[in-house]
Write a structure and sequence with these properties.
Length: 486
């Protein structure tokens, strides 16, 4: 194909313009040499307690000017590490604070470097800004939720009334307010001129103020209670009047009721005292239950009305039955060993073994996380134990063996504990005889004949390849009794 001179000139001009535009984009806008090759850059690591929404390529600001970008954000053993790529032409003092800020409520975080000592040495490659010198913003979601709850707690009608009454109170009082401000200013000037006399008055008023401070709680409680009582009396004025009119007859009815309940009332009150003691002890748990109850009711309601007012044929709850069988496997540590476990087919009911039977693995184990070993001690905050006696004593929970499944004789464990677990010093713990040797139990497990895979008593999967159907068909019962490979 023959190109004319004009076309060649046009192509050359287009090529030059494209190269100039690409160079401006790569070197000016994308800053590829600095970003990809680290030219004229050095890195500083910031130790953060949490990521706080910070992301790679976020801006780094120093005195209102962009001085770099966040190169990487990664997890560490103690929190989060953010690697900053900074321009080496700008000298930033090393004595500084690093703060993560947000441009708006929807995100776009950046790192602000705030120097505390301008004469300190500048930052160099590899420096680390420690966690005590780093601040992250509060969670925006929690802040918005708290703001929402605060605004919702303000009675709208009362707020409107307060604003209207404030306008009525100060509306048109501009000159009076000005005189009040001018008088306050003159009072401050006079107080400064008589500073010595005021200082003496303040020093000599200490005993009076101390007495008021010592009884401040009682005074505050009395004032709050008095205000509450008067407000309630004013609100229920009709009810108070009715009580005064009907008080005599109501008192007589109450007296007759107590006389009729005289035989059983003391027992009821005594039981209520015991119930009150238990309620006081479990007050944090009851409070948590009441906090979670509305959300639980909402979840149940959400599943029960999932298809209401829809055209779907199926009417019912949205439930997902994912049967994760044996994931994780059942906990057997702390229960009777396999030699002493009863067959599920037995129908008798022997006496329960003395002591406590529960999952006795370490408290941070993934097995049976809500088991008895992690019961919170309500009378000892921060402590968890399987029994009330252990909660109220200095005894600490000790897992059985090393937290794995059974190893040998239950009365000769590695930790020297009894199974079932008995209280320290109990007669039963001292009189338990060593169990007689028992014959090895017959282990039965279902297996997959196609692959030879089966689940053992310890909950783990095993594969016996010579049981699979892919093995030769000339297997005899004598060969099945021999070890694999023979």
């Amino acid at each position: 194909m023959h190109l004319t001179r004009q076309i060649k000139i046009q192509l050359a001009i287009f090529t030059v313009v494209a190269l100039v535009a690409a160079s401006v984009m790569v070197f000016g806008y994308m800053k590829a040499p600095a970003r990809w090759l680290g030219v004229n850059r050095y890195t500083v690591t910031v130790q953060l307690p949490e990521a706080a929404g910070l992301y790679p390529n976020a801006n780094v600001i120093y005195r209102g000017t962009e001085v770099g970008r966040v190169e990487d954000v990664r997890l560490t053993d103690k929190g989060v590490a953010a690697v900053l790529s900074l321009i080496d032409d700008i000298k930033i003092p090393s004595d500084l604070r690093a703060e993560v800020h947000s441009v708006s409520a929807i995100g776009e975080q950046y790192v602000a470097l705030l120097p505390r000592n301008g004469s300190s040495r500048p930052l160099t490659n590899g420096d680390v800004i420690a966690a005590p010198n780093v601040a992250v913003p509060p969670d925006v979601n929690s802040l918005l939720d708290d703001t929402n709850r605060g605004l919702a707690a303000i009675p709208q009608d009362n707020l409107k009334t307060a604003i209207d009454e404030s306008y009525t109170a100060v509306g048109g009082l501009g000159p009076e307010i000005r005189r009040f401000v001018n008088g306050s200013t003159q009072l401050a000037i006079d107080a400064r001129q008589n500073l010595d006399a005021l200082t003496t008055l303040i020093d000599q008023s200490k005993p009076v103020l101390d007495s008021q401070a010592d009884t401040s709680d009682a005074i505050g409680a009395w004032a709050n209670h008095l205000a509450t009582v008067t407000d309630e009396l004013r609100t229920h004025d009709d009810s108070v009047a009715g009580l005064l009119r009907s008080g005599a007859s109501a008192t007589d009815e109450g007296r007759q009721l107590f006389e009729r309940l005289r035989p059983t009332l003391p027992i009821v009150l005594a039981n209520l005292v015991s119930l009150g003691t238990v309620a006081v002890t479990y007050q944090p748990a009851l409070e948590q239950l009441l906090v979670l109850l509305p959300q639980g009711v909402a979840n149940v309601a959400g599943t029960s009305v999932a298809n209401q007012n829809t055209k779907q044929d199926y009417k019912g709850a949205y439930l997902d039955f994912n049967l994760n069988l044996n994931l994780p496997p059942a906990c057997t540590t702390g229960f009777l060993p396999a030699q002493q476990q009863r067959s599920p087919s037995l129908e008798d009911y022997p006496d329960r073994p003395a002591g406590d039977l529960y999952c006795r693995v370490p408290q941070d184990s993934m097995f049976n996380a809500r088991g008895a070993r992690n019961y919170p001690c309500l009378t000892v905050p921060g402590k968890r134990a399987p029994t009330v006696k252990m909660c109220e004593s200095n005894e600490q929970y000790v897992p059985l063996n090393d937290g794995t499944n059974w190893k040998g004789d239950p009365n000769a464990t590695l930790s020297g504990q009894d199974v079932p677990q008995l209280p320290p010093g109990s007669p039963a713990a001292q009189s338990i005889p060593a169990p007689a040797p028992t014959p090895a139990p017959l282990a039965v497990a279902a297996y997959d004949p196609d692959t030879g895979t089966y689940v053992g008593p310890d909950g783990h999967s095993y594969t016996q390849s010579d049981l699979a159907r892919t093995e030769p068909n000339d297997k005899t019962w004598q060969k099945m009794l021999l070890p694999p490979g023979n």
